[in-house]
Amino acid sequence: MKTELTLExxxxxxxxxxxxxxxxxEFRIKAMFEAAGHAPSSRNEQxxxxxxxxxxxxxxxxxxxxxxxxxxxxxxxxxxxxxxALARTTHAYNGKPNRFALxxxxxxVANLLLQAISFDIYIHQMGGYSPEKVSSYLxxxxxxxPVTVMAMGYLGDGSSLPAEVARKDEQxxxxxxxxxxxxxxxxxxxxxxxxxxx
Length: 198
Ligand SMILES: Cc1cc2nc3c(=O)[nH]c(=O)nc-3n(C[C@H](O)[C@H](O)[C@H](O)COP(=O)(O)O)c2cc1C
What we know:
binds flavin mononucleotide; 8 helices; alpha+beta; NADH Oxidase; about 200 residues; globular
């Protein structure tokens, strides 16, 4: 995907496996969550919730690590913080299901990621965790669902990682071409193909 016109902050974001345990300043963490809260949402319900911990709260940090599948725990344990993104899946105004709750929460997370990268702080989201463990540990009611768990921190050198995990950070992950994800008028006509009719 050609990226020259893409905002630098968007281009610079990626999800590393190599994290540094160096502390992230609290004011930056707060700014990241404020950015998340600026996201748009259906009916402005702001259905996202975040719960985080840092390695300074050692016991809690270990409990959060236990949410993760082993393949994630192996590298996420080096991060400074772990963030759980939750979504309230019912509307505040009538208690009925809010079908945009996950969508809205994803947008809030996108803001969080970009604010983080503006500070050279990296976030790696994980779907490989146990929602049951998260729900049970946090005592969640049935209307609040875990969405992702995220490792957060400054970039590390990968020296404490198994070589095959550290190697994953050597290259950025590829993206589809614009024409593969955009069509004009109908799905059968890809947009922005070099060879397409104008
Ligand atoms: C919802 C979601 C779940 C993910 N789950 C995992 C995961 O369990 N383990 C992992 O290593 N990466 C996980 N990732 C990271 C993706 O693999 C990564 O974002 C994708 O390959 C694109 O790479 P980039 O973020 O470096 O651009 C997840 C990302 C998202 C958005």
